Amino acid sequence: MGFGKAFALSLIIYIALNFVFGMLVYLLGAGIDQYFNLLTSDPMFFIFSLFAPVLFLPGDIWVGTTSTGIVGLISDLMGGGTGMLDLLMAVLAGIIPALLAAIIAGRTAESKGAAFGAWLLTAIISAVVTLVFLGFLSADSTNLAPLWFSYTIIYGSEIIVYIVIILAGLVSGIFYGAFAAVSASEGF
């Protein structure tokens, strides 16, 4: 019962927080009305956006490059900080949902192993859902088709894109699974 409860709560919290942070990112950028227009104009992209943050590797979000992560925030601050709020919200949207869902999985699981496994399963399911929407249903979506096309151009093959998506979910699951295990109150 502890594993199932931890898994269900981590998945629900992860999806709910991605929804909230998606609204905040759109509120700061294109406008909140465009976010809700996705429900009617492109529902597949909307559902995809609830699971897609698992694709961002923890190192890219936590540390990043000159345009992402903490390094991007510092370089933007030193350069005048014109897009700092947008970048800050994007970084927080990549960190907070996974971190909070992993901690909640840890607090609701019966053991550290169950906590780790619950978040790992959440991350892998999120990656598989992202893969299904991006790889197999993207032809019916006006926003997913160009994204899928760009991924196949970057990686050179659809098979490699499938592998990268699954590995990204696995890496995120292991990274944030450690936070779940540490936050669990019982032993392995």
Measured between the Cα atoms of the first and last residue, the distance is 16 Å
Shape: globular
How many structural units, i.e. domains?
Answer: 1
Q: Helical content, roughly?
A: over 70%
How would you characterize the overall build of this protein?
The protein is mostly helical and 188 residues long. It has one domain (2-183). It contains nine helices and no strands. It has helices at 2-28, 32-41, 43-51, 58-62, 69-78, 84-108, 112-136, 144-155, 158-183. Helix 5 (69-78) runs antiparallel to helix 6 (84-108). The longest helix has 27 residues, at 2-28. It starts with a helix and ends in a 5-residue tail after the last helix.
Summarize the structure.
By secondary structure, this protein is mainly α. The chain has helices spanning 2-28, 32-41, 43-51, 58-62, 69-78, 84-108, 112-136, 144-155, 158-183. α6 packs across α7.
Which helices and strands appear, and what pairs or packs with what?
Layout: H1 2-28, H2 32-41, H3 43-51, H4 58-62, H5 69-78, H6 84-108, H7 112-136, H8 144-155, H9 158-183
Helix pairs in contact: 1-2, 1-6, 1-7, 2-3, 3-7, 5-6, 6-7, 6-9, 7-9
Please supply descriptive tags for the structure shown above.
9 helices; 0% strand; globular
